[in-house]
Amino acid sequence: MTWRRMRPALEATGRVDAGVVDEALACLSSPRLAEVAPGMLQAWGRRRSGSPS
What we know:
Blueprint: H1 3-12, H2 18-29
């Protein structure tokens, strides 16, 4: 999932404001940035049997 797609969910938590996301996107878009992986985050998992929802 990309930062642009995660933006609404991140901001909806109230822990991240639009300025922080804008700053991250600007940094990731900079031609001066050298990174090995694309700027995205993805998680996968499942709850253990019997764990609370």
